[in-house]
Amino acid sequence: MANAMAHSRGRRGPADGHSPVRRAAATVGVVFLIVGVLGFVPGITTHYGDLSFAGHGSGAKLLGLFQVSVLHNLVHLAFGVAGLALSRTISGARTFLLGGGAIYLVLWLYGLVVDHSSGANFIPVNNADNWLHLLLGLGMIALGVLTTRGRRHR
């Protein structure tokens, strides 16, 4: 019923199959929310007792691989909220995917140049994070481009 009402008003939900970019942005947003929450779950995040607010000294690792901190987890949660909020429109969804992808490519570059054991590594990132940031950046940009190719942006 709600879906029919949304169609009669010309609005579509992010997962209704009518807008691939909105569906992609919402999916990426949900994944970021899940990752952000999992970063606070002992067991899924190893060395949870070593979780610090920020900085390279955080010894906690999501899935035993990706270095995380409270700040890192909060960034994931913020990206998730942004993805869901921006997935409400085609232009917002495209902006989230392209802009978020660009941000993750900058984070990848940051991870390449920062000394991982220095105070400048405040997020923190490790080599596994760097590779993930590269893949996220390229993947989000690809989704933003491929799901809107040939469409007019509203």
TrEMBL record:
Transmembrane among keywords: yes
Transmembrane regions: 21-44, 64-86, 93-111, 131-148
The keyword Transmembrane is annotated on this UniProt entry: yes
Region (Disordered): 1-20
Any Pfam family: DUF4383
Protein keywords: Membrane, Transmembrane, Transmembrane helix
Record's protein name: DUF4383 domain-containing protein
